[in-house]
Write a structure and sequence with these properties.
The chain is α+β, with helices and mostly antiparallel strands. The protein contains 38 helices and 16 strands. The radius of gyration is 30 Å and the shape is globular.
Length: 786
């Protein structure tokens, strides 16, 4: 029976550590940072603009000044997880009370506030040095308190069940592990893995000048030491005024992206994909057409923006470095630099009268409220697509204004316009994204074509490549190898990872080249894939190339020692290297850091079984099922483990749960179920399960053979012959099917058909000399008996 372990890509980590920004530090000493007050003496005007900005007030201490300025009301009792929580402001402090009915359970001191543009979030000290988001947040737009964890629930539509609110004490709501580095400056978590304790420090609350300009100590010294009339020979800090378009976008993306860090530090001006990976449309936190479903921080949509590709548009074109809107009083200004012809006949372009007051942003950057009640503008700049709303449930600007109308109404109007087919291309690739998410591969050739097409948007191509990770057929190797030459470093990195488990010479050579790519993300993903090849297949020179990339790969998994998913990926690395104990240690560390993480428990169970500790393997799988009773992988592995021990009734129950979790695509569980039910004499059920396995993997002759075997056992001889004929047609070298079909013919007394079958098999190229001799012997014996 087959065991299975779960191997997600590094990019999948961002799904888990959605808020995971990272420390900005400089290796030559923290004393190089001077603080924003040091900028004030020479840059007073800018300081006055920065201090009250979104960046300047990204995090604020709760004190008398905060309370007097923001004038937030005390809250009414709000139910969170069955307890009532209230917030009260005193003269200079803020307190939260937790009650069970009238009984006071606990009092929490609240020390810090984050945000305030749309939502105020608040932090209270917890054990082991943590700062935790309290479960109440304040909606600055509606002027009301609300249940913050509950507001974070995603709603994935009718075809997927709703998300569930995390407990408010979950690690995902801890400042130290989540939102920390995008709300303060020059932070060090100082995490001690052994005690799981933080000693977090930072230079300054809020996002200060040195976040974007780097350490300012040298800059201050240089200009203080200048003599009158003397010009400085160097600035002594990072000047963003000379940044390229890419550098501007990259400097903002560490905080404004749903991403995963792969290095422990980043400086503006560095390449983004040398330091981060980013989440794209493989994640259901995006609608299939790329609109954002959750709080995804803009960057993925921005990468889909056609204006970015066709101009020098970048983040600082429209925003100041402190987060202010440059064109607040004239919101069309940035657009009209390139699209000035739109003003000539605005009514024709918008389809609305002038008095409607539409701006470019109304249709191309509509604001929407995401989970947690945050407001964000759509940075993809794409026009409204009501047909995407109809097909994929994504929002569109037409119905955001005309909320009393249907998407069908809006779509009819759009379709009737002179360029009314502008939605078509998006709808085509969005349908493919949806199918790939659902493991439907009838149009996989179209997916390949989109990936190969140089005109395909990078995010779309990258998303399809990542989703191909679930496509079981090795025919994807060709398109992935080609994608390793793509201009997009993101696409190259995902293509490299996608070649994991494909052991052809072409794949090996392509991955060797990728290990030398100029971008770190590509190199580490290539290392991850190529390390699965046997070491003895490489020359000494090739091993040197791999070793260098491997060191970067391992370093990427130690960038955040408090992040469970880094330890999980480290476990995968050790497992692929054949070091079971090191892999188990990493998996157990991951599970200890975040007990709700299921994948480390599933993978460790496989390894525990491998080293002979079936008791621990079973224990870990049952821990998973306590959290998620329908977990497909856990039920599959538990079923296989129990079956190996002869506990067939228990195995059948677990394997049935695995099949029910994914009825159209769980061939391993279905095949093993067919074996189990057949042993108790239920051949009809054996055929049913074998048929499910075959339908899920129609190109795998083993599954087809199992089906044919039980069809024959169940007296369905015609069906068995048809199944075997299909195997022979598609896999002529699969001689087990040939022998079985010949045996059926002989039992029916049809020696001529059996003889023809053997003679046809003898003509197949590539069969071994031993098989050829066996076929010839069967032919001779048959001819002698006729």
């Amino acid at each position: 029976m087959i065991r299975k372990f779960i191997k997600p890509a590094l990019f999948a980590i961002a799904v888990i550590s959605i808020f995971s920004c990272k420390t900005r530090t400089k290796t030559n000493g923290e004393n190089d940072y001077a603080g924003s007050e040091s900028c004030r003496e020479c840059h007073e005007n800018f300081y006055q603009l920065w201090e009250p900005s979104y960046h300047g007030q990204a995090m604020m201490p709760i004190n008398a000044a905060f309370i007097a300025k923001h004038q937030l009301p005390n809250s009414k009792p709000i139910d969170v997880e069955g307890h009532l929580f209230t917030v009260e402001f005193l003269d200079s402090t803020m307190v939260m009370y937790e009650r069970n009915g009238d009984r006071l359970i606990e009092t929490y001191d609240v020390l810090w506030a984050m945000g305030g543009h749309n939502v105020y979030c608040f932090l209270t000290p917890f054990e082991k040095g943590k700062l935790q988001n309290i479960p109440l947040a304040y909606d600055a737009n509606r002027k009301e308190w609300f249940n913050y964890p509950e507001a974070g629930i995603r709603h994935f539509g009718d075809e997927y069940p709703d998300d569930e609110a995390l407990p408010w004490k979950d690690a995902m709501f801890a400042f130290n592990t989540g939102c920390y580095s995008c709300h303060i400056s020059q932070l060090s978590t100082n995490f001690d893995l052994a005690s799981e304790t933080y000693h977090t420090t930072w230079r300054e609350a809020g996002i200060n000048c040195e976040t974007c300009h780097g350490p300012g100590g040298d800059h201050v010294r240089i200009f203080k030491d200048l003599k009158e009339g003397e010009e400085a020979k160097e600035l002594g800090l990072i000047s963003t005024s000379v940044f390229t378009q890419e550098q501007h976008n990259d400097a903002c993306a560490p905080c404004h992206a749903k991403m995963t860090p792969i290095t422990p530090s980043y400086m503006p001006g560095d390449k983004y994909f040398d330091n981060y990976n980013i989440t794209t449309l493989e994640d259901r936190d995006f609608y299939a057409d790329g609109r954002s479903l959750g709080e995804n921080y803009t960057m993925t949509e921005w990468m889909m923006n056609p204006c970015v590709d066709e101009s020098q548009l970048h983040c600082v074109t429209c925003h100041t470095s402190s987060g202010r809107d440059r064109n607040k009083d004239n919101p069309d200004q940035s657009c009209l630099q390139c699209h000035n012809n739109r003003n000539e006949d605005l009514e024709t372009h918008t389809g609305h009268p002038a008095e409607a007051g539409l701006t470019c942003l109304s249709c191309h950057m509509p604001k929407r409220e995401f989970v947690g009640r945050f407001l964000r503008s759509d940075h993809s700049f794409r026009p409204p697509m009501p047909e995407a709303t109809i097909k994929f449930g994504s929002p569109n600007a037409c119905n955001q204004c005309h909320s009393d109308k249907s998407p069908q109404w809006a779509n009819e109007i759009v379709k009737a316009r002179p360029n009314g087919n502008y939605q078509d291309e998006t709808l085509k690739w969005a349908q493919l994204i949806k199918e790939a998410r659902d493991n439907e591969w009838k149009n996989v050739d179209k997916m390949f074509a989109y990936i190969r097409n140089p005109k395909t948007d990078d995010v779309v191509a990258n998303s399809l490549i990542r989703l191909l990770g679930n496509y079981p057929d090795a025919s994807k190797a060709g398109v992935l190898i080609e994608a390793l030459n793509n201009q997009s470093e993101l696409i190259r990195s995902s293509a490299a990872y996608g070649l994991s488990g494909i052991f052809t010479d072409d794949a090996k050579n392509a991955l060797l080249q990728a290990c030398q790519d100029e971008i770190r993300l590509v190199r580490i993903q290539a290392a991850n894939a190529i390390l699965m090849f046997p070491e003895d297949t490489f020359t000494a020179e090739q091993k040197t190339i791999i070793d260098k990339a491997e060191q970067e790969y391992v370093a990427s998994m130690t960038a955040r020692t408090d992040n469970w998913s880094n330890h999980y990926n480290l476990g995968l690395y050790h497992q692929n290297k054949g070091d079971a104990q090191a892999a188990l240690n990493s998996y157990e560390t991951a599970a200890r850091l975040y007990p709700e993480s299921l994948m480390p428990l599933i993978n460790s169970s496989v390894l525990y079984s491998y080293v002979g500790n079936n008791q621990k393997a079973e224990e870990n799988l049952k821990r998973v099922l306590e959290y998620d009773a329908d977990n497909e992988a856990a039920n599959l592995n538990l079923g296989l483990l129990l079956a190996e021990q002869g506990r067939l009734d228990e195995a059948e129950k677990a394997l049935s749960a695995a099949v029910n979790a994914n009825p159209g695509n769980q061939p391993v569980a279905a095949k093993n179920l067919s074996v189990i039910v057949a042993q108790r004499g239920d051949l009809a059920a054996a055929v049913k399960y074998a048929s499910l396995a075959y339908k899920a993997r129609p190109n795998d002759p083993d599954y087809a053979y199992t089906l044919a075997y039980y069809q024959s056992q169940n007296g369905q001889t015609s069906a068995a012959k048809k199944t075997l004929q299909q195997i022979i047609k598609s896999n002529p070298g699969y001689l087990t099917a040939t022998s079985f079909l010949a045996d059926i013919y002989l039992r029916e007394g049809n020696k001529n058909m059996a003889l023809k079958l053997y003679k046809d098999a003898l003509k197949v190229e590539g069969i071994s000399a031993q098989d050829r001799a066996a076929l010839q012997q069967s032919i001779t014996m048959l001819q002698q008996s006729m």
